Amino acid sequence: MAIKLRIPRGTNGKGWLTRDPLVRAALIVFVAVSALIVGFFSYYYVKYDQIIEKRFQSPVFSSSAKIYAIPRVVRVGEKITP
To answer: Is 43 part of any domain?
Structure first.
């Protein structure tokens, strides 16, 4: 069984969406809020991307690689540096 759907058109020929002021206001609010959310996300994305890129310019794992190294044996009277 086929279903036919008719969308009413306005008198000016633009359609039903632009005719209703409530739908128009809701659409404007949705677009404005979406633009704000995308703007905030983009700002913080770029901000923290720059911080991460700055940290990755130096050697990342040079100091942490010695955590799992074999410990050195220290004997009494041995002269070592800190």
So the answer is: yes
For the whole model, what pTM was predicted? 0.49
User: Does residue 10 form part of some domain?
Assistant: no
Residue that has been written with the tokens 């306005």 in this structure: 10
pLDDT of residue 49: 96
3-state helix, strand, coil in the chain (%, to 5): 50, 0, 50
| The dihedral sign for the CA sequence 23, 25, 31, 33 | negative
User: Could you tell me if residue 1 is inside a domain?
Assistant: no
The answer to whether the CB of 46 falls within 8 A of the CB of 40 is: no
Q: Supply 80's token pair.
A: 């070592």
